[in-house]
Amino acid sequence: MNKECYFIAISELGYKTCTENGTWYLSPDSGHEWTDYTQCSNIQEYKELHHAIVASNSITVLLALPACIIFLYFRQLRQQQRIRLHVSLLVSAVLVSMCKLIWELTLTRDRLDTQREDKGEDSLLERNPVGN
Fold it and tell me: Per-domain residue ranges for the chain?
């Protein structure tokens, strides 16, 4: 191995290829040195994390929405400043959780299910023409 090609992978999962002339392999797409990090990520861990995020945000919506409705239904509760503050907090939590759910269920799920190497497909985010 040529001294120019010395590479230490911290996790021992990233790989660089040393060519015969003693330089690192260049990516044909970018023309830059390319390191293979495909072994570094475990897709199953990301899918489990995705399921946990969807579950926690769903629980937040399912519990906070009825609480808001109850607080707003009773006139005596609506008039208290403390309850108004709690309703604002709960509405905020519901809106944030709903936005996260939309993101997770549309883009993240599609990205995890679409593996370009296997299916030859791009994810929804990669097919988006805006910003290209």
Answer: 1-40, 43-117
